[in-house]
Design a protein that fits this description.
By secondary structure, the chain is an alpha+beta fold. It is 26% helix and 26% strand. It has two domains: 88 residues, no CATH class; 130 residues, no CATH class.
Length: 246
Amino acid sequence: MDRLVFSAMTGARAALGQMAITANNLANASTPGFREQVAAFRAVPMGGDGANTRSFTIDTTPGSSFLQGSVESTGNAFDVAIADRGFFVVRRADGQEVYSRSGRLSVNAQGQLMGAGGFPLMGDGGPITIPPNSRPEIADDGTVTIFDGVSPQPQVIGRLKLVNPEPRSLSRAADGLFESQAVLGSAPLGEVRIKQGFLEGSNVSVAASMVALVSQQRMFDLNIKMVQNADTNARSANGIMSLSRG
Protein backbone atom coordinates (compact mmCIF):
# COMPACT_ATOMS: atom_id res chain seq x y z
CA MET A 1 0.00 0.00 0.00
CA ASP A 2 1.28 3.46 -0.87
CA ARG A 3 2.56 5.17 2.28
CA LEU A 4 0.62 8.33 1.42
CA VAL A 5 -2.64 6.38 1.26
CA PHE A 6 -1.90 4.68 4.58
CA SER A 7 -1.00 7.86 6.47
CA ALA A 8 -3.96 9.76 5.01
CA MET A 9 -6.29 6.89 5.91
CA THR A 10 -5.23 6.99 9.57
CA GLY A 11 -5.79 10.76 9.61
CA ALA A 12 -9.27 10.37 8.12
CA ARG A 13 -10.14 7.66 10.63
CA ALA A 14 -9.00 9.85 13.53
CA ALA A 15 -11.00 12.83 12.25
CA LEU A 16 -14.08 10.62 11.86
CA GLY A 17 -13.69 9.38 15.44
CA GLN A 18 -13.38 12.95 16.70
CA MET A 19 -16.55 13.93 14.83
CA ALA A 20 -18.45 11.07 16.46
CA ILE A 21 -17.33 12.16 19.94
CA THR A 22 -18.10 15.82 19.27
CA ALA A 23 -21.55 14.89 17.93
CA ASN A 24 -22.21 12.89 21.10
CA ASN A 25 -21.17 15.89 23.21
CA LEU A 26 -23.58 18.11 21.30
CA ALA A 27 -26.38 15.58 21.71
CA ASN A 28 -25.85 15.73 25.49
CA ALA A 29 -25.45 19.50 25.75
CA SER A 30 -28.69 19.68 27.75
CA THR A 31 -28.20 16.46 29.76
CA PRO A 32 -27.91 17.26 33.49
CA GLY A 33 -24.45 16.55 34.88
CA PHE A 34 -23.01 15.33 31.57
CA ARG A 35 -19.20 15.54 31.39
CA GLU A 36 -17.75 16.47 28.03
CA GLN A 37 -15.85 13.66 26.34
CA VAL A 38 -12.40 14.52 24.99
CA ALA A 39 -10.68 12.57 22.21
CA ALA A 40 -6.89 12.76 21.91
CA PHE A 41 -4.74 11.61 19.02
CA ARG A 42 -1.00 11.63 18.41
CA ALA A 43 1.23 11.41 15.39
CA VAL A 44 3.71 8.52 15.19
CA PRO A 45 6.60 8.62 12.67
CA MET A 46 6.47 5.96 9.97
CA GLY A 47 9.46 3.65 9.63
CA GLY A 48 11.21 2.54 6.50
CA ASP A 49 13.33 4.05 3.77
CA GLY A 50 11.90 7.23 2.33
CA ALA A 51 9.25 7.57 5.04
CA ASN A 52 11.21 9.68 7.52
CA THR A 53 9.07 12.76 6.91
CA ARG A 54 5.72 10.96 7.16
CA SER A 55 3.65 9.97 10.15
CA PHE A 56 0.43 8.18 10.89
CA THR A 57 -2.19 8.85 13.54
CA ILE A 58 -3.18 6.65 16.45
CA ASP A 59 -5.89 7.38 18.99
CA THR A 60 -5.68 7.19 22.75
CA THR A 61 -8.38 6.28 25.25
CA PRO A 62 -10.96 9.12 25.25
CA GLY A 63 -10.95 11.17 28.43
CA SER A 64 -13.44 13.51 30.04
CA SER A 65 -13.55 17.12 31.10
CA PHE A 66 -14.58 17.44 34.73
CA LEU A 67 -15.08 21.19 34.73
CA GLN A 68 -18.28 22.14 36.51
CA GLY A 69 -21.33 22.87 34.39
CA SER A 70 -23.66 25.79 34.94
CA VAL A 71 -25.90 25.48 38.03
CA GLU A 72 -29.43 26.83 37.77
CA SER A 73 -32.17 27.22 40.35
CA THR A 74 -35.25 25.08 39.67
CA GLY A 75 -37.09 25.20 42.99
CA ASN A 76 -37.76 21.47 42.62
CA ALA A 77 -37.15 19.47 45.80
CA PHE A 78 -35.99 16.53 43.68
CA ASP A 79 -33.26 18.54 41.96
CA VAL A 80 -29.88 18.63 43.73
CA ALA A 81 -26.53 19.92 42.51
CA ILE A 82 -23.02 19.28 43.79
CA ALA A 83 -21.44 22.60 44.68
CA ASP A 84 -17.88 21.75 43.61
CA ARG A 85 -16.14 18.38 43.45
CA GLY A 86 -17.71 15.00 44.07
CA PHE A 87 -20.18 12.52 42.64
CA PHE A 88 -23.51 10.92 43.43
CA VAL A 89 -23.61 7.13 43.65
CA VAL A 90 -26.20 4.95 41.94
CA ARG A 91 -26.42 1.16 41.81
CA ARG A 92 -26.93 -0.77 38.61
CA ALA A 93 -29.20 -3.80 38.38
CA ASP A 94 -26.12 -6.06 38.69
CA GLY A 95 -25.27 -4.45 42.04
CA GLN A 96 -22.31 -2.41 40.82
CA GLU A 97 -22.01 1.11 42.15
CA VAL A 98 -21.31 3.79 39.52
CA TYR A 99 -20.94 7.55 39.70
CA SER A 100 -22.63 10.56 38.17
CA ARG A 101 -22.97 14.32 38.55
CA SER A 102 -26.63 14.28 37.53
CA GLY A 103 -28.81 15.43 40.41
CA ARG A 104 -32.20 15.08 38.71
CA LEU A 105 -33.93 12.68 41.11
CA SER A 106 -37.25 10.87 41.03
CA VAL A 107 -39.18 8.38 43.14
CA ASN A 108 -40.23 4.98 41.78
CA ALA A 109 -43.35 3.00 42.62
CA GLN A 110 -41.65 1.51 45.68
CA GLY A 111 -40.74 4.95 47.01
CA GLN A 112 -37.02 4.63 46.29
CA LEU A 113 -35.05 7.69 45.28
CA MET A 114 -33.79 7.17 41.73
CA GLY A 115 -30.82 8.93 40.17
CA ALA A 116 -28.94 8.89 36.87
CA GLY A 117 -29.89 6.18 34.40
CA GLY A 118 -33.03 5.37 36.38
CA PHE A 119 -30.91 3.51 38.95
CA PRO A 120 -31.44 3.67 42.74
CA LEU A 121 -29.61 6.56 44.39
CA MET A 122 -27.44 5.23 47.16
CA GLY A 123 -27.27 6.43 50.72
CA ASP A 124 -24.63 5.55 53.29
CA GLY A 125 -26.79 2.61 54.37
CA GLY A 126 -28.17 1.60 50.99
CA PRO A 127 -31.03 2.90 48.82
CA ILE A 128 -33.16 5.66 50.34
CA THR A 129 -36.92 5.21 50.50
CA ILE A 130 -39.26 8.20 50.73
CA PRO A 131 -42.51 7.37 52.60
CA PRO A 132 -45.79 8.20 50.81
CA ASN A 133 -47.26 11.69 51.23
CA SER A 134 -44.05 13.13 52.61
CA ARG A 135 -41.84 15.96 51.47
CA PRO A 136 -38.05 15.44 51.49
CA GLU A 137 -35.50 18.05 52.42
CA ILE A 138 -31.85 17.44 51.63
CA ALA A 139 -29.22 19.31 53.64
CA ASP A 140 -25.96 20.49 52.12
CA ASP A 141 -24.15 17.49 53.63
CA GLY A 142 -26.59 15.07 51.99
CA THR A 143 -28.74 14.33 55.04
CA VAL A 144 -32.31 13.53 53.97
CA THR A 145 -35.19 14.45 56.28
CA ILE A 146 -38.91 14.18 55.62
CA PHE A 147 -42.00 16.07 56.72
CA ASP A 148 -45.05 13.85 56.62
CA GLY A 149 -47.57 16.31 58.07
CA VAL A 150 -48.22 14.02 61.03
CA SER A 151 -45.10 14.09 63.18
CA PRO A 152 -44.34 17.54 64.63
CA GLN A 153 -40.61 17.03 64.07
CA PRO A 154 -38.81 16.17 60.83
CA GLN A 155 -37.51 12.61 60.58
CA VAL A 156 -34.02 11.81 59.34
CA ILE A 157 -34.24 8.83 56.98
CA GLY A 158 -30.68 8.69 55.67
CA ARG A 159 -27.79 10.49 54.06
CA LEU A 160 -26.84 10.48 50.41
CA LYS A 161 -23.64 8.61 49.64
CA LEU A 162 -21.31 11.23 48.20
CA VAL A 163 -17.84 10.32 46.96
CA ASN A 164 -14.91 12.46 45.95
CA PRO A 165 -12.47 10.36 43.89
CA GLU A 166 -9.64 11.66 41.78
CA PRO A 167 -11.41 12.19 38.41
CA ARG A 168 -8.49 10.65 36.51
CA SER A 169 -9.15 7.35 38.28
CA LEU A 170 -12.64 7.10 36.74
CA SER A 171 -13.54 5.60 33.38
CA ARG A 172 -16.68 6.32 31.39
CA ALA A 173 -18.92 3.32 30.73
CA ALA A 174 -21.11 2.78 27.67
CA ASP A 175 -24.15 4.17 29.53
CA GLY A 176 -22.32 7.45 30.27
CA LEU A 177 -21.86 6.74 33.98
CA PHE A 178 -18.41 6.57 35.55
CA GLU A 179 -16.80 3.48 37.01
CA SER A 180 -13.88 2.95 39.35
CA GLN A 181 -11.76 -0.16 39.74
CA ALA A 182 -11.55 0.53 43.47
CA VAL A 183 -14.52 0.43 45.82
CA LEU A 184 -15.15 4.02 46.88
CA GLY A 185 -16.28 4.92 50.36
CA SER A 186 -18.23 8.03 51.33
CA ALA A 187 -16.30 11.28 51.42
CA PRO A 188 -15.73 12.79 54.88
CA LEU A 189 -18.71 14.75 56.17
CA GLY A 190 -18.79 18.20 54.62
CA GLU A 191 -16.17 17.51 51.93
CA VAL A 192 -18.83 17.25 49.22
CA ARG A 193 -21.57 19.89 49.48
CA ILE A 194 -24.85 19.88 47.62
CA LYS A 195 -27.67 22.35 47.04
CA GLN A 196 -31.31 21.31 46.92
CA GLY A 197 -33.52 23.02 44.38
CA PHE A 198 -30.65 23.50 41.95
CA LEU A 199 -29.55 21.46 38.95
CA GLU A 200 -26.15 21.28 37.29
CA GLY A 201 -26.24 21.18 33.52
CA SER A 202 -23.78 19.74 31.03
CA ASN A 203 -20.32 21.27 30.82
CA VAL A 204 -20.36 21.08 27.01
CA SER A 205 -19.87 24.40 25.22
CA VAL A 206 -22.18 24.26 22.20
CA ALA A 207 -20.34 27.06 20.39
CA ALA A 208 -16.90 25.47 20.90
CA SER A 209 -18.22 22.05 19.88
CA MET A 210 -19.74 23.44 16.67
CA VAL A 211 -16.44 25.09 15.76
CA ALA A 212 -14.60 21.83 16.52
CA LEU A 213 -17.05 19.86 14.39
CA VAL A 214 -16.43 22.11 11.37
CA SER A 215 -12.65 21.82 11.85
CA GLN A 216 -12.84 18.03 12.14
CA GLN A 217 -15.01 17.80 9.03
CA ARG A 218 -12.44 19.81 7.07
CA MET A 219 -9.63 17.61 8.36
CA PHE A 220 -11.53 14.51 7.26
CA ASP A 221 -12.13 16.01 3.80
CA LEU A 222 -8.45 16.95 3.50
CA ASN A 223 -7.30 13.40 4.25
CA ILE A 224 -9.82 11.90 1.83
CA LYS A 225 -8.56 14.32 -0.83
CA MET A 226 -5.03 13.07 -0.19
CA VAL A 227 -6.18 9.48 -0.75
CA GLN A 228 -7.81 10.53 -4.02
CA ASN A 229 -4.65 12.35 -5.12
CA ALA A 230 -2.55 9.28 -4.31
CA ASP A 231 -4.87 7.18 -6.46
CA THR A 232 -4.63 9.68 -9.31
CA ASN A 233 -0.83 9.72 -9.06
CA ALA A 234 -0.71 5.92 -9.09
CA ARG A 235 -2.90 5.75 -12.20
CA SER A 236 -0.72 8.34 -13.95
CA ALA A 237 2.45 6.45 -13.03
CA ASN A 238 1.00 3.19 -14.33
CA GLY A 239 0.09 4.90 -17.60
CA ILE A 240 3.58 6.31 -18.02
CA MET A 241 5.18 2.95 -17.27
CA SER A 242 2.87 1.24 -19.77
CA LEU A 243 3.90 3.72 -22.48
CA SER A 244 7.60 3.28 -21.70
CA ARG A 245 7.29 -0.50 -22.01
CA GLY A 246 5.50 -0.11 -25.31
